[in-house]
Here is the input.
Amino acid sequence: MKRDSSLVTKAAITAVGSYVPEEVLTNHDLEQMVDTNDEWIRSRTGISERRIAKNPQHSTGFMAVKAAQNLCQNNHIDPSTIDLVLVATITPDYQVSSTAPYVATQIGATNAFAFDISAACSGFLYGMSTAASFISSNQYKKVLLIGADKMSSIIDYTDRATCIIFGDGAGAALFEASDNGFGFENAIHGNDGIGREYLNIQEGGSLYPINENTFNAGKHYLNQEGKTVFKYAVKHMAETSKKVIQNNALTAEEIDYVIAHQANKRIIDATTNHLGVAEEKVLTNIHKYGNTTAATLPLLLADFESTFKKGDKLIFTAFGGGFTWGAAYLTWNYDYQN
Ligand code: UT7
Here is the structure.
């Protein structure tokens, strides 16, 4: 017998929030720092500028708190009613002591437990499945999921292969138990450990602890083989998105919006071409933020919140270090009210 989906408890997004630093780093600024130019960056990545948290105190935790407070204040959410705070990040404030408990305490989520998710650019997507699992199993009712990264803290600003892409920012989404039929539907995730050869911070972990030599050689900065990452990203985001679309018996026309990780506009275009989704349904803000790692998906949600209508069908997809990847299907739960 067919199950009436409206009777199932789903994890619905009921509010979103965001924070980006005020300081803007433009392509023209980067021209003064490395051998690059605005035309190359825009045509190869789609990025014009990115935000950089120049104040050393403005850490990932700081930005995550700001995004969460933005969400709570704009939507009159009492933080003490939140059951779980998840922070997806690869740039935690400290190597030991996860960032989520700090964020929960700072925002007054006094009844929540909290932990970090480390899945690089897929962190928010993995967090969506985690939040949905806790809610649909009826363990918890309100989960605050934050994607936040201070990428400028791990970037070598003499390396033009990485410094042109990344930026800083944070976004947040509140997932709540809902019985109206809308919310997180399902997802597919994947990974391939070969990825750590192509996208990593080589030293400073338990395998190669940092020392004076590695520090002087800059091995504590993010390192990537961009072309390889590019190919894997398109392949896996396209394949898993297609599977999710098929599993939910959707057509390209029925999809209202694609929320894809913002790493490179060419990766987004190549991925969504495979899906046959019209260009205007593919949301982008990469031109103004660059790649903010775990923050790209929630920053899209915050930027386009006023566009979404109750019942809209959203496909999410992401790819990141590890390698990690996935796609998810979510039906939007509310009409925007100013
Ligand atoms: O979120 C997950 C993490 N990362 C990613 O998803 C990144 C995926 N990769 C990419 O976005 C792209 O590979 C990059 C943007 C990093 C590089 O673009 P590309 O089209 O793959 O360039 P390339 O590395 O193949 O380099 C092409 C040329 C080379 O010159 P030659 O050998 O053709 O003379 C590079 O030296 O462009 C040169 N180049 C640059 N020129 C100006 C590389 N970086 C730059 C630069 N400015 N910043």
In short: The radius of gyration is 19 Å. Residues 36, 40, 44-45, 121, 160-161, 164-165, 199, 224, 226-227, 229-230, 233, 263-264, 291, 320 surround oxa(dethia)-CoA (CB under 6 Å).
